[in-house]
Amino acid sequence: MRLQARLDARDRLRESEKTLSQNIYERGVDDAGFGRIRSQGDAALFGGHTTQAMKDRFGITKTRPLADFLPTLTIAAKNLATEITNHNVSQDNLQGERAITHEHVQNNESVRDMLGQRGIKPEQLPAEEDIKKLERRVKAEEKKLVQQSGTLPAPKE
């Protein structure tokens, strides 16, 4: 169940980031700008450590998303900050990379502050298993369960 919760959290973050990408594209920010906004948000959440610094710390290749290796709590923290950014970008009709970056950084700092009040520093939490490996394992387990379950007996007349 803990692994499924992590998969679900990662799916929610994927959706939030997709919405943010669409939201900010409509407001004059391109893909490169979206990357910079996310990276600066990560630096705010991880106490000044950039996305690349965190990838280096965890030994994650450049092509893989940091979030695929984060624990559930950190994924949920990133998602909360992203959801707040989505809400405020729309509600306040923020335009351009600078305004949206400022908003996203503030939201990540707020989430970090909240975690800090509970003694949690996201950059100190250990990496977890690659989410892609976890997804493959869950699919294999589901397949095994289906094969083991066989067919249901025919109903009695």
Counted by DSSP, the helix tally is 6
Mean pLDDT over the full residue set = 93
For the terminal residues, how far apart are their CA atoms? 39 Å
Overall tally of domains? 1
How does the helix and strand content classify structurally?
mainly alpha
**What percent strand?**
under 5%
Order of helices and strands: HHHHHH
Unreliable sequence segments: none
Rough shape?
globular
Largest sheet: none
Radius of gyration using CA atoms only: 19 Å
Total number of β-strand segments?
0
Helix content: 55-70%
Describe this structure in words.
The model has no long low-confidence stretch (mean pLDDT 93). 69% of the residues lie in helices and 0% in strands. Helix 1 packs across helix 6, helix 2 (31-45) runs parallel beside helix 5 (96-117) and helix 4 packs across helix 5. It is globular and about 70 Å long. The chain has 157 residues and is mostly helical.
Topology:
Layout: H1 2-25, H2 31-45, H3 51-58, H4 72-91, H5 96-117, H6 131-149
Helix pairs in contact: 1-4, 1-6, 2-5, 4-5
Brief overview:
It contains six helices and no strands. The longest helix is centred in the first third of the chain and has 24 residues, at 2-25.
Key words describing this protein structure:
single chain; 157 residues; mainly alpha; 6 helices
